[in-house]
Amino acid sequence: MTALTDTPTWQTLASLAEDVKQQHMRDWFASDTSRASKYQQTACGIELDFSKNLITDDVLKALFALADESQVSQKRDAMFKGDIINHTEKRAVLHTALRNFSGEPVYVDGQDVMPEVLACQDKIKNFVASIHSGERKGYTGKALKQIVSIGIGGSFLGPKIMSEALKPYWFDGVKVHFVANVDGCHIQDVLASLDHEETLVVMSSKSFTTQETLQNTLTAKDWFLNAGGTQQDIAKHFIAVSSNIKAATDFGMAEDNIFPMWDWVGGRYSLWSAIGLPIALTLGYDNYRQLLEGAFEMDEHFKAAPAEQNLPMLTALLGVWYINFFGAQSHVLLPYYHYLRGFPAYVQQLDMESNGKNISGDTTAVDYATGPIIWGSEGTNGQHSFHQLIHQGTLLIPADFMLPLNVPKQDNTHHAMLASNCFGQTQALMQGKTFDECYADLEGKGLDEAERVKLATHKTMPGNKPSNTLLFEQMDPKTLGSLVAMYEHKVFVQGAIWGVNSFDQWGVELGKELGNQVLDKIVNTDAALSFDSSTNALIARFRQANS
Ligand SMILES: O=P(O)(O)OC[C@H]1O[C@H](O)[C@H](O)[C@@H](O)[C@@H]1O
User: Fold this and answer.
1) What pTM, to 2 d.p., does this model score?
2) How would you class 153 by CB atoms within 10 Å of its CB: exposed for 0-12, middle for 13-18, buried for 19 or more?
3) Which of 508, 509, 510, 514 to mutate to test the pocket of ligand 1 (most atoms within 8 A of CB)?
4) For residue 243, what is the DSSP state?
5) For residues 85 and 75, is the Cβ–Cβ distance under 8 A?
6) What keywords does the record list, in alphabetical order (predicted)?
7) N or C: which end of the chain has fewer CB within 10 A?
8) Which pLDDT tens digit goes with each residue over 203-222?
């Protein structure tokens, strides 16, 4: 047993879980009409209904005790203060400084980082204004109307998904295209439709060493030069966001055209830095700023609200409850809003890269589950496919349903149907349908007794499936900022309880390293192959097909 699983609180939670498994949420709702109002909290434009969860007051009390004993608040304060909490990379974790509008300084190694942060925000603001006004032009004097944003991981998901989510707020007149994968099909397709004279390439790479991003930028550069641009014109059409200024200038970027970022911003938390420039180009600076302000508001809520009202804390603890005491291995995100369709993929990187870890503290192997599989897609589409498994499969899959109450420029009939499906699903998951109800429904359907019993058995829905419902007045930039920050802090709280380092990603690094070793053998076709026999055979087959 580890220190965590050995605690009386952990043991209490384990025994409460055994109790709860014998009960049904539909009975709780029937016996307590105030359940919905009791288990709901609102903050930063997010209304969280968590009443359809397998919880009682005792469960919540024990979960809050677990958070207390795991020193979540102390760890949270250490993060906001700039302590070196990413202990394997010896870095502070300060994405919160990028949206700090308190006017207070934030120190890293004794130095206030806020002046640099604010200067970078000004640089973004001026740059966006110069593009949107058409003042900044390409080498032939045309306005730069097509933006190609090249980056991967956190340098792609945040910018792309947040831009997509805010489509009703787009600035008319520029179009941002995103390219991530090294698969040449993607960049070819994007560049094929563009006029190089009005194209601006934004290369986003914190490290400036990521293979995919470097290669895609080189391909874009070749395309630009082949289309008629010269080496000298590059400065007008290529800019970079990176913390590795030297590598960026070595690559040929003009120093003026490099937007800075810092090693105290993790890739998956970087949309708040200049990595968010494509968002600002898509929405305009004011809307982009609202996004940051929404995140700041959530930071303040996370720091100040008591656990019972604290959205990141509540959602995190509910997750721990299911992962560690009910064996849930995944968590599904279901945005009922087409523009938010990418959100599950965003949280997938945020959560799985952060808490996909098995060492607690310095060197202790965990003996409990940590980060879940995050997945999901937009409603109602999933209802016609994978929801079946959530309703009647053998796995317990907690769900977060999300719905904006108002949507711009849309027929109300569609929106009412969308909402009814969202609410109907949470209801069905919670209450299920008993055998008796199914049996009664089959009355007068011309079935003999055996057939009626058989069909009722198959139609029986266990229910008791947990879900949160998150409502938003509307999905505007500020609310989206708060929502993203809520999930960031949720992941933080869970990592703090499990004692893992939520801010490194050694598994991903290994993939990068091995990919490069293999590439070397693919490119140098005469080189001897010294990997395992399967990898060797795959490389040999590829060489043969491409010879
Ligand atoms: O921005 P870059 O340095 O190019 O890194 C891009 C991505 O690389 C890796 O995959 C990391 O795990 C991600 O967190 C990061 O966002």
Assistant:
1) 0.97
2) buried
3) 508
4) S
5) yes
6) Cytoplasm, Gluconeogenesis, Glycolysis, Isomerase
7) C
8) 999 999 999 999 999 999 99
